[in-house]
Amino acid sequence: MEYNIAVIKGDGIGPEVVDAAIEVLNEIGKKYKHNFKYEEVLAGGVAYDVYNNPLPEETLEICRNSDAVILGAVGGPKWDDLPGDKRPEAALLGLRKGLGLYANLRPAILFEALSDACPLKPEIIGEGLDICVVRELTGGIYFGDRGYKETEMGMAAYDIMIYSKQEIERIAKVAFNMAQKRSKILTSVDKANILESSRLWRKTVEEVAKDYPDVTLNHMYVDNAAMQLVRYPQQFDVIVTENMFGDILSDEASMITGSIGMLPSASLGENNKGMYEPVHGSAPDIAGQGKANPIATIMSIAMMLKYSFNLSEESENIEFAVKKALDEGHRTLDIVSKGDNALGTKEMTQVILKNI
Ligand code: IPM
Ligand code: MG
């Protein structure tokens, strides 16, 4: 089979980790006889520098016509003072919306070999952690009306959180389907004690639940969820929530696993179309130094194989190769114990390649 993949390396450590992940993907291609074809396109700060636009129309068009998109990271201090629509982050939002990627899957898995990196006490983390945050990605306050206006207190800025029933239904279905394949426990996170959009969220999720009688649904307020994640993380399996709550809770969940440098993500729309990127950012402080942990991007490739191409065996091969590298004691700077030797991006990639 031939697969067409749009590649956005982006800013900071983006190019380093994407190059690493593509090496791994090519190895999978060789082993299983798949033809992965890449088309590199610009988005983020690098695109702004060339086109004065963080998301050129051509980039979006090529991504639309690809089977999947791999993205490194966007952003950096160089572009921090630009207006909102010129910032590298605007490219991310434009890609999500433009490709209709409304479902963001963010697994937070604590690898056994890394249990020392978890900041929680061993009695709290117990047997480990395997949570999947399903974040709504194309609605809510990220995309609602925004602006400035005069008020009694002088000039003010506003951002509106708005959700249609349909948007809630489709993300709820993704989460229930995911819960069905896992431990059949779903926690829906909202702020229904305050927000009208959360009350519609809760009511709609309950309606969708009727089609999934085998899944146990709990509701939790977002402040409590943030607290419960560090108090008793094992109570969670799949968490579904709106865009901004998901942004915040997925960072929190990732920290429990020890390093944000380990976590992949998939952003999915209809028809298996997806964009795959590490949860971490562009890490400008270590960019270009060959120190970045490539695992999050490599694991994102594993998600791509599974969700967009339906290649489960190939996907599991990558997961196995990463786990083996960790079990053998190989560590990059972000996950190394004090006093131990840290591998660079390329060295870690070589170790993983050998395990494929
Ligand atoms: C994320 C990031 C983005 C978001 C930023 C960079 C726009 O934090 O993917 O979680 O807020 O969605
Ligand atoms: Mg975030």
List the helices and strands and how they pair.
Elements: E1 2-10, H1 14-32, E2 35-40, H2 45-51, H3 57-64, E3 68-73, H4 88-98, E4 103-109, H5 122-125, E5 130-136, E6 146-151, E7 154-159, H6 165-181, E8 185-190, H7 196-209, E9 216-221, H8 222-231, E10 238-241, H9 243-256, E11 264-268, E12 274-278, H10 295-307, H11 312-327, H12 345-354
Helix pairs in contact: 1-10, 1-12, 6-7, 8-9, 10-11, 11-12
The structure holds 3-isopropylmalic acid and magnesium ion.
Question: How would you characterize the overall build of this protein?
Answer:
This protein is α/β, with parallel strands linked by helices and 356 residues long. It contains 12 helices and 12 strands. Helix content is 40%, strand content 21%. Strands 2-1-3-12-11-4-5-10-8-9 form a 10-stranded mixed sheet, with helices on both faces. The radius of gyration is 20 Å and the shape is globular. The structure holds 3-isopropylmalic acid (IPM) and magnesium ion. Residues 89, 92, 247 line the site of 3-isopropylmalic acid.
Q: Which key terms come to mind for this protein?
A:
binds magnesium ion, ten-stranded mixed sheet, 356 residues, 12 strands, binds 3-isopropylmalic acid, alpha/beta, two-stranded antiparallel ribbon
Low-pLDDT parts are none
In terms of DSSP E residues, the strand content is 15-25%
Oligomer: single chain
What structural class is derived from the secondary structure elements? alpha/beta
Helical segment count: 12
- How much is the radius of gyration in Å? 20 Å
Give the N-to-C terminal Cα separation: 20 Å
Q: Which descriptor suits the 3D outline?
A: globular
Strand order of the largest sheet: 2-1-3-12-11-4-5-10-8-9
Major sheet, described briefly?
Answer: 10 strands, mixed
The total count of strands amounts to 12
What is the typical, i.e. mean, pLDDT? Answer: 96
Small molecules bound: 3-isopropylmalic acid, magnesium ion
N-to-C SSE string, H for helix and E for strand: EHEHHEHEHEEEHEHEHEHEEHHH
Helix content: 40-55%
